Amino acid sequence: MRLPSVSAVVVTYNRRDRLAESIAAIAGDPLASEIVVVVDGCHDGSYEMLVELAKSDPRIRPVWQENAGDAAARQTGVEQAGGEVVLVLDDDVLAGPGLAEGHARVHAATPGALVLGYMPVRRPAVRRPGDFASHLYAEEYEAQCRRYEADPSTILRGLWTGNLSIRRADALRVGFQTEGARLGYHSDQAFGLRCLRAGLVGVFDRGLFAEHLHERDVDTFVRQSRMRGSDRRRLEELFPDLISHHDLDDRLAPAVRAAVAVAAAPGMCRLSTPALLWQARRAGQARLWRLESVLARCLRQVELRRGYRECATRAT
């Protein structure tokens, strides 16, 4: 069976400290015929470092663009790539041995596929106060993987990128960018929904292993929570034929859900968000991890609902 050629595409922004390790991991796979690294307008020395790395490995192709977001940078990377298959990796994801070859084998056997590999989060050996963002992310990612396995039709409807491959021709036909909208958080889900419309099929394979070095500070967690809400509203507008009103309750207990609804009400967010942040920090300092996680979920829901509401208000 002839395997298609594979170009790795990595988008990076302000992750110079992680980037060399990520590039070294995928460079260890001989089937990765080139490694296109798009620097999305950051000035942390990433581009200069990549130029140096390329001197010893000509497969590494640094590409600079002005900051335009993940989706635009992925589009640039795919356009620059020359392989039949593009393996799109996040800059904090470490490819496991044979990852490019594994993706290529799935594509050789499955025409019209969008392939997701498995990328569990590397959790700290010892939990520290404020680590709740990565712990919540890890729990939700594993739950999503179980949904993929139970019902493969959810792969494209709830796409989670970071370790993804697709035929380059299909990627160019579908496009990573959402026309008329720059999504800050759910650009991956929008891409999956466009792939669904285009007739592609989602495949999830745990054997395509990578490791996710996920880190988020508290301020980023809060900002991204609000962004998630805003993007969810936009997805409903962009894909009314594929998704309905999103459930924003995050599987909270009924009593907690009711409290969140009050805390997220217009005029309350500016008070409830700082209060929940303070409580979560205190819980972390006391090493009450379960309480810290519950408070973080509540905080996320308050900001998610706030973002959703603000986006809906702007649309009217």
From TrEMBL:
InterPro entries according to UniProt: Glyco_trans_2-like, Glycosyltransf_2, Nucleotide-diphossugar_trans
Domain Glycosyltransferase 2-like: 7-120
Domain of life, source organism: Bacteria
Residues annotated as signal peptide: none
SUPFAM superfamilies: Nucleotide-diphospho-sugar transferases
Stored Pfam families: Glycos_transf_2
Transmembrane segments: none
CDD domains (UniProt xref): Glyco_tranf_GTA_type
Name assigned to this protein: Glycosyltransferase 2-like domain-containing protein
Species of provenance: Rugosimonospora africana
